[in-house]
Amino acid sequence: MVGAFQGAGVVVTGAGGGIGAALARRFAAEGARVVVNDLDAERAKHIAEEVGGVAVPGDASAIVGDARDALGGTVDVYCANAGVAADGIQPGQPLDEKAWALSWDVNVMAHVRAAQELLPAWLERGSGRFVSTVSAAGLLTMIGAAPYAVTKHGALAFAEWLSLTYRHRGVKVHAICPQGVRTDMLAATGSAGDLVLQPTAIEPEAVADALLKGIEEDRFLILPHPEVAAYHQARAGDPDRWLTGMNRIQQQWEENR
């Protein structure tokens, strides 16, 4: 797809490293003008300089206006990639309300706020592309990480809603749902990630490749780990059997912690 996005204005949030940086590099290689967003201004600047883009650091929930200005007034592709992972609830321990609130804000509401700002211009001109980095946790679940699993389900639900509501008006939506990806976030998942995600983990560049292929094929659901499709079908076809299997993994994790 060399040159497929020549001149397009692309925004990637959470692009200071990991999947976001890989997306920024890939879109730049395709000829796009890339805005690199990250909370860490130095990391955003570093990746922007590498790809010949513009750094717009800050909260991913509030950068659409500045990103649009940096691109000369038009955003063609918005990659809602910024995300946070938080541990699950523990019996007898205080509920971490702040972790839940942050997870909702970054993993779901940042997508909602961005779409709210982007949609008027996209609908007026009849084109626009929204890319949501969801995770396989949004299709399945993840042991030991209730806020992450629940809010990633929310991110997928919002992406589905955007697609079904606006696809006939020219808005394209893609949901990327990888399992383990070798990033700082995977490293932070600890023993749960070691058990469930590390064995099949892929590089961030493979996620970027899968996205570009999915865009070329005009697919909503993009699975860098193809086996996730079978897991998703098994979950839908027999929820109790699937939950029993996941519970075995939970027990294995508890025994080995």
Kindly summarize this structure in a few lines:
This protein is an alpha/beta fold and 257 residues long. It is 51% helix and 11% strand. Helix 4 links the parallel strand 4 and strand 5.
Provide tags for this entry.
single chain; alpha/beta; seven-stranded parallel β-sheet; 7 strands; globular
Detailed description of the structure:
The protein has 257 residues and is α/β, with parallel strands linked by helices. 51% of the residues lie in helices and 11% in strands. It is built from ten helices and seven strands. It has helices at residues 18-29, 41-51, 64-70, 97-125, 146-166, 184-187, 190-196, 204-216, 228-237, 239-256, and strands spanning 9-12, 33-36, 54-55, 77-80, 128-133, 171-176, 221-222. The longest helix is centred in the middle third of the chain and has 29 residues, at 97-125. The mean pLDDT is 93.
Overall SS class: alpha/beta
Sequence of secondary-structure elements: EHEHEHEHEHEHHHEHH
Shape: globular
| Largest sheet features | 7 strands, parallel
What share of residues are in beta strands?
5-15%
Indicate the mean pLDDT.
93
Helix amount: 40-55%
Keywords: Oxidoreductase
Protein name: SDR family oxidoreductase
Organism: Streptomyces venetus
Family: Belongs to the short-chain dehydrogenases/reductases (SDR) family.
Q: What's the arrangement of secondary structure elements?
A:
Elements: E1 9-12, H1 18-29, E2 33-36, H2 41-51, E3 54-55, H3 64-70, E4 77-80, H4 97-125, E5 128-133, H5 146-166, E6 171-176, H6 184-187, H7 190-196, H8 204-216, E7 221-222, H9 228-237, H10 239-256
Parallel strand pairs: 1-2, 1-4, 2-3, 4-5, 5-6, 6-7
